[in-house]
Amino acid sequence: MSSPSSLKLLAIKSLLKDEALSLSALKTLPMELFPPVFKVAFDGKQTNILRAMVAAWPFRCLPVGALMKTSDLEILKAVLDGLDLLIKQKAQPRTCKLEVLDLRNSQHNFWKVWAGTEDVECSPDVISERQSAVCHTIRRGKQIVTVMMDLSLKSRDLCKSLKYFHWWAKQRKDVVQVICEKLEFGARPVYKPLKLLEVFEQSSIQELEVNARWDLRTLAMFAPGLGQMRNLQKLLINEIFTPLEWFRDQEMKELCFRDIISQFSQLKKLKNLYLNGVFFLHDRLDRVLRNLESPLEILAITRCMLSEADMMYLSQCLSVHQLTHLDLSGVSFLNLSHALLGRLLERLTGTLRTLKLKGCKLMDFQIGVLLPALSQCSQLVEVNFVKNFLSVSSLQKLLQHTANLKNLTLEMYPAPDEVYDDTGDVMPDRFAQHCFELLETIRGIREPREIYFVSKRCLDCQGFCVYDKEASLCSCWE
């Protein structure tokens, strides 16, 4: 015997075989049937029916993005044509309530439950309550509909669907607002990224990730848009390089630095900041952090060059005293005061959960200054000291100062200097012996959960020799 949902699905498919009848039936279609009918029409790419259903959609939000597994220009055009019909209606029917077109890949449960793939009894009121309550009133006035989207741009050029949407939205800026909370660039664009932003309410962007290796010129051209993202909470910039022709043009580089750094004064809402391989921070860190209105939660400045003045500012900055995550991996302390790093840790003893100091070139005489503060960071869950130059004695002291860190679940330490021969190669027997001794040191204090001792690159296997609490001999990681 067929279930009620199966019978309903058969009836909907039968109805949609006759397009004219389907379009006529929309006028009297109960609102609880709109989702299942829309989904079947969507799966069948019945664009004329989709266009009419968007214009007559009886709920406040249409989460069509959850149905778009791949980019389909014809489906997108049909949905946007439906919005145009809605916008042109001078007197909207009482049943037409659409305010938000959601193009994000979210709200899957709406379609699973209310489009009939799960047997759940529901009333129109319950359906309405299950809709997203998110509504961004960024721009007040006469806009009729809000379009919500997240963008992850993996290609160097825009796909046809996004080009079309950009053109469509640009023509309708007076009646449509486009909200984009998350924007990610995964490739260096051949288009102008600043032009892409012109259709968005830029103050709606809360997360921006530049994961591609942009050149300095592209980032400088994009900077005015960054300054408009006044509600940005997460910023990630990964590797910026200088165009070859600019290497000796210091004046041009300084102009770009000024254009970029000046925009940080507008980013008062930042909570999470990740800067990796960003070479323009030197002597400018204060201008990046000084305008924040609330404390940062995550600060990751990695593979960057900082000055003594930068570290002095960081150790005193009001915006970092509640960090839960601090990552300074790849920041060399060969010429920086390690005491300032100790002072910074002293301010984070009550909040810090993750500490990463990988490849900071810390030495025996420097690590001791950090230990008193480190031992008080009772909330620490993860530490990483790999690729620093520490002896067995210093590592033993470091491990002994973790006695109070009961929440540690992942610990990564450098193999001691004594495991290398005169040419810098790993001596496997000595590696295993010293790491075993260090493991016994920490077991005398507490039982580690996940702990690794990692060497420099091993010339024999071209990997990294690693010793963990389960190993009796070294293994090799790439």
Automatic annotation (TrEMBL):
This is PRAME family member 12-like. SUPFAM superfamilies: RNI-like. Belongs to the PRAME family. Keywords: Leucine-rich repeat, Repeat.
